[in-house]
Amino acid sequence: MAALRTPTSRLLSTIHPVRSSIAARSYATVEVGPIRKLGEAMSATQPPVSEKHTSTINDPSKGENPKTKTFHVYRWSPERPTEKPKMQSYTLDLNKTGPMVLDALIRIKNEVDPTLTFRRSCREGICGSCAMNIDGVNTLACLCRIPTDTTHQTRIYPLPHTYVVKDLVPDLTQFYKQYKSIKPYLQRSTPSPDGRENRQSPAERKKLDGLYECILCACCSTSCPSYWWNSEQYLGPAVLLQSYRWLADSRDEHKGERKAMLDNSMSLYRCHTILNCSRTCPKGLNPGKAIAEIKKSMAFA
């Protein structure tokens, strides 16, 4: 836990030179919630302008007995790079809105403010596109229910500690580069004896449960303080879980090469078992356990 006490000034000094090509972009910070309490490093840009200093956009089509709820949404546009990020407030009638946060965002975009930008695709918790920080928790907007208490104001941010492309869209370029680096596919040197598929027993297949279900939404990696501070070198929970998925696969024959790639001080061992990753995973997976299994296999190799 000592890593959590790293001075903010030290963190900031490492942020600026890393990706200078997109230095003008906004950098996502969460104003309130568990992540901020853990001492999230602030970016070169200040936290977003509070909703207290911005206007509220109201639902244009309220019913007779509206159940009005307020949503504060992070807004920043690359078309106006000198403007600070801000929290824009929207009110919606829940009687005319679906039950999930994604339903609220889609309704805001379709009926209230077409300039709002966010990613979404399947609406079933499969694609991972709508990952964002909702009320201080990294999750999928399509799986996150809107609290029915209208006195509770929902706050929506992009995934924390990521560069922001626009509004709720994070830049995951580095995340996917790291995923590519682990060679996430079956590697074999010997062909199948009968020329058909490479088989495994039911027991061997069972070892992959809790690993193959990862949808690469990046909720776990962007909740990890070690990843915030070392994202250029530490692979992070999601990529390490995917790495273990292939280390645990009985059909893969390049386990030695996979372990050698992780055998350094940064790729794997920056994990300090904080377990934010396991707490926040919207699919209920346990990246922390997968990382521990990799460390164990490295120790007894």
Compact summary:
Helices cover 27% and strands 13% of the residues. It has helices at residues 8-15, 34-37, 101-112, 173-181, 202-206, 225-230, 236-247, 255-262, 276-280, 287-299, and strands at 26-27, 56-57, 68-75, 86-93, 131-134, 137-140, 154-157, 163-166, 169-170.
Structural class: alpha+beta
**H/E element string?**
HEHEEEHEEEEEHHHHHHH
Give the helix level as a range of percent: 25-40%
Between the first and last Cα atoms, what is the distance in angstroms?
A: 28 Å
Strand content: 5-15%
**3D shape:** elongated
Major sheet details: 6 strands, mixed
| Strand runs, count | 9
DSSP summary: helix tally: 10
Look at the structure and give the mean pLDDT: 85
Poorly predicted residue ranges: 1-24, 31-45
Which strand order does the major sheet show? 2-4-3-7-5-6
Query: What Rg is obtained from the alpha carbons, in whole angstroms?
Result: 21 Å
Describe it.
- There is one protein chain.
- With 301 residues, the chain is of the alpha+beta class.
- The chain has ten helices and nine strands.
- It has helices spanning 8-15, 34-37, 101-112, 173-181, 202-206, 225-230, 236-247, 255-262, 276-280, 287-299, and strands at residues 26-27, 56-57, 68-75, 86-93, 131-134, 137-140, 154-157, 163-166, 169-170.
- The protein has a six-stranded mixed β-sheet, with helices on one face. A three-stranded antiparallel β-sheet has the order 1-8-9, with no helix packed on it.
- A hairpin with a 2-residue loop joins strand 8 and strand 9 (169-170).
- Helix 7 (236-247) packs across helix 10 (287-299).
- The two termini are 28 Å apart.
- Residues 1-24 and 31-45 have low confidence and may be disordered.
